[in-house]
Amino acid sequence: MYGKAVFDFNAIGGLMELKETVQRLGAGHPHTVLQPALAAGEDPDDAFSKVPYEKGFAFLVYLEQMTAGGADAAAGAAPSAVPDAAAGTEAGAYPRSLFSST
Question: What is the pTM of this model?
Answer without folding.
Answer: 0.61
